[in-house]
Amino acid sequence: MVNFGTAFFASAAGIFLLSVAVCSAENPDWVLKTDYMNKPVVVAAVDAAGPAQLALISSGLNGNFRIGAFCTAFRDKKPVGNMIVVDASRDKCVALALDGAAFKSGDAVYITPAN
Hints:
Blueprint: H1 2-23, E1 41-47, E2 54-57, E3 70-75, E4 78-88, E5 93-97, E6 108-111
Antiparallel strand pairs: 1-2, 1-6, 2-5, 3-4, 3-6, 4-5
């Protein structure tokens, strides 16, 4: 009976320490801590040949750029326009320009929070 109590106590202590470590872990980079992401990504290339302007963005699913994500592009710290992600892979994504915005390579792109 004594061995069972010791094993139970050791297991409970181990589970408690593991839960404290998990709960106090640092948030990943993509978690929105302010109005915009902490790390801007850039427009890598622009395709304006078709009926709509598409922008290739230098980050993808790893940077939380999911299909449907609403983004804002900035040039010289001034907003250029909005875009929505229409295709995404692990390390890049493609966004569609909204409201006739004209993007250039090198524009900073941030995910716009929903709130």
